[in-house]
Design a protein that fits this description.
Layout lengths: L1 E3 L2 E3 L1 H29 L5 E5 L9 H15 L3 E4 L5 H11 L4 E6 L13 E5 L2 H10 L1 E6 L4 H15 L8 E4 L1 H16 L12 E4 L2 H11 L9 H8 L2
Parallel strand pairs: 3-4, 3-7, 4-5, 5-6, 7-8, 8-9
Antiparallel strand pairs: 1-2
Helix pairs in contact: 2-3, 2-7
């Protein structure tokens, strides 16, 4: 028996737990290696996010499909979470275009089922490994209406860009009516209380139409390269 924090624990149980956790390291490494191998040549790419619950006849589904088709024809690989809803729409539109359609799938107890429109398909157990793949090779983020998962990905990229842990890329929020209340709260609460700077809102832009989304991405790269600079590549190595 060993004692920790005033509690006695069977050493055999502790050793078994440690061994199990140690083996998880190799599972995590395998996810990263596979992701790097399959995605390192997809540049330029755009990561598209949105609700898994959006139905095919929903205007947001249709807009996601149209946007992804335009991006694909413009030479961007499209990366989605690989599931249903907006993710399916993104992969479907991309696959109909000229560039690869990529699904970065996650194993979940419910909701997540793999859509059929993926040219390159990856499967992850760990959210954190999957999130790296969304960011590492992305030239832009396109964020359609969604729930907690979509907000999580939005907060992740905003934090990484804000703190300089990844390069500055376009972050396009699709749907003025949907996102404006959140941006208003950012202004009235976060900026007002000093938890973010006013210029942090410049990290995002609002668009409503597929053509405007694509234009916003090209406008961002009008005076810079789609490919990361040497300095940006060094930053991405430590992502």
């Amino acid at each position: 028996m060993i004692e920790t924090a005033g509690k006695r624990i069977d050493k055999r149980v502790a050793d078994a737990q440690l061994q199990r956790e140690s083996w998880r390291i190799f599972q995590i490494m395998a996810e990263f290696v596979e992701g790097f191998e399959k995605l390192c040549m997809i540049r330029p790419s755009v990561s598209v996010f949105g609700s898994s619950r959006t139905l095919p006849d929903d205007p947001w589904y249709i807009k996601a499909e149209q946007t992804s088709r335009l991006l694909s024809d413009a030479g961007f690989s499209v990366v989605s979470g690989g599931g249903p809803g907006i993710m399916e729409a993104a992969n479907k539109g991309a696959q109909a275009g000229k560039s690869p359609s990529i699904g970065v799938n996650i194993e979940l107890p419910r909701e997540q089922t793999k859509n059929e429109y993926q040219d390159i398909s990856l499967n992850f157990r760990h959210f954190f490994a999957r999130k790296v793949m969304f960011v590492k090779y992305a030239s832009a983020y396109v964020v359609l209406p969604g729930g907690f998962g979509t907000l999580d990905e939005l907060a992740e990229i905003l934090t990484l860009v804000q703190t300089g842990k990844t390069r500055r890329i376009p972050i396009v929020l699709v749907g003025t009516e949907f996102w404006s209340p959140l941006l208003d709260w950012f202004r009235s609460t976060l900026i007002a209380r000093g938890t973010i700077d006013p210029n942090d809102l410049d990290l995002m832009q609002l668009c409503d139409e597929p053509e405007d989304i694509v234009k916003a991405i090209f406008d961002h790269y009008e005076t810079r390269s789609l490919e990361p600079s040497e300095a940006e590549q060094e930053i991405l190595l430590e992502l």
